[in-house]
Amino acid sequence: MSDSAHATNGSAASVAADSDDETVAAAAESEERAASGEYTFDDLSVVMGTYNEEEAIATVLEDIDEVTDGKAEVVCVDGSSDRTPEIAREHGATVIEQEPQGYGVAVREAVLTPDRPVVVTTDCDDTYPMEALPEFLAEINDGADVVSGDRLYHGAEAMPAFNRFGNHAFAAIASLLMGERVHDTTTGMRAYRREVVQEIGWTENTGLSAELLIRPLMRGYDVRERPIRYAERLGETKLDPIGGGAAIAKSIVTVCLEEQLRRF
């Protein structure tokens, strides 16, 4: 074997040793963060259900990548017939293909797929501000179990007036039934400690977003609402405002009553 070959093998061994040292150091750092409760974007998964969002998905994924320096994991549960999944994969997202079965089914799959300790749900229509991710993570590090983006705090002028009225009504109904004031029950942008969503049984589909706020709140978890800016969506909405609104209202009443009964 030539000297150059020996030199190459020696360098490879050195690189391997360095790599092992880095792996051990990274593992120790991760354990230290977990023990202290301090999470970084390496501990974050951003998840979403996607359905024919080829107009917006690239922008959303690019924003996540920029804000988290490419460290956050992204999971899309997709039932599209357009180029949405292709674009998502091109941007490094994990895509799980699923027949369209509704909002809750997609989000449930997206939330339970990753194994990182902090999960952020969002929509793929570019309405939610990915620049808020550092603030959400900071709230989790401060002890929050759930951080919920309040779209209505700043007025949500980009939201259709009928939808805005409905969201205020949903919050009023939930607040009355829970005996605790909430401002935005149906926001699509929230951060959760992973163990919270694992411990809570979910039952709703269209009303899942409200359920994932109400159940933790009524079970005594540290739930915080944080104002966020809401932008005009890219692409067409898929939700029927009348039928969907009725389903959400029914979910809110059902979940609140179930949680009240749990206390007895």
From TrEMBL:
Polar residues composition-biased segments: 1-10
Superkingdom classification of source: Archaea
Keywords: Transferase
InterPro entries, alphabetized: DPhHxTase (IPR054887), Glyco_trans_2-like (IPR001173), Glycosyltransferase_2 (IPR050256), Nucleotide-diphossugar_trans (IPR029044)
MF GO annotations: transferase activity
KW Nucleotidyltransferase (keyword) present: no
The Glycosyltransferase 2-like domain, residue ranges: 45-201
Region (Disordered), start-end ranges: 1-36
One Pfam family from the record: Glycos_transf_2
UniProt protein name: Glycosyltransferase family 2 protein
